[in-house]
Amino acid sequence: MNETRPALPRRNLTREIKPTYWRKLIEAGVPIDAADAIAWAIARYDTARRLPPSSQQALIRQYCAFVCRAGLWRSQLLVNPGL
Fold first, then answer.
1. 18 phi and psi, to 5 degrees?
2. How far is CA 82 from the centre of its chain?
3. pTM of the prediction?
4. How many angstroms separate the CA atoms of 81 and 83, rounded?
5. Rounded mean pLDDT for each run of 10 residues along the chain, 83 residues in total
6. What is the secondary structure of 26-69 as a DSSP string?
7. In the chain, how long is the greatest CA-to-CA distance?
8. Contacts of 42 (CB under 8 A, 6+ apart)
């Protein structure tokens, strides 16, 4: 029989995928502290479609080439919902 994994709450799913994103960012050349914040922002976006705060958006802009290299670029991450 095929066993399927039980659905995780979004917060738990975010915590589960964040380390994978963090590792990819580190391997792409992002400094550890910035990688942590960026990985969290992308994981939250992927699991709950929550846009990052401006401080995390600034980090994503600063390291956008590295985020792309890590295969984690999401164009909607930098969209301002108020515009």
1. -55, -45
2. 21
3. 0.81
4. 6
5. 54 89 98 97 94 94 96 86 55
6. HHHT--HHHHHHHHHHHHHHHHH-PPPPHHHHHHHHHTHHHHHH
7. 50
8. 21, 60, 67, 72, 74, 77
Count of domains forming the chain: 1
Residues 6+ apart with CB under 8 A from 71: 24
Q: d(Cα 56, Cα 78) in Å, to the nearest integer?
A: 9
Whether residue 35 is contained in a domain is answered as yes
* Residue 66: inside a domain: yes
Amino acid at position 55, single letter: S
Question: Which residue range(s) make up the domain with 36?
Answer: 10-75
What is the pLDDT, as a whole number, of residue 1?
A: 47
* Domain annotation covers residue 48: yes
CA 3-5-18 angle, 5° bins: 150
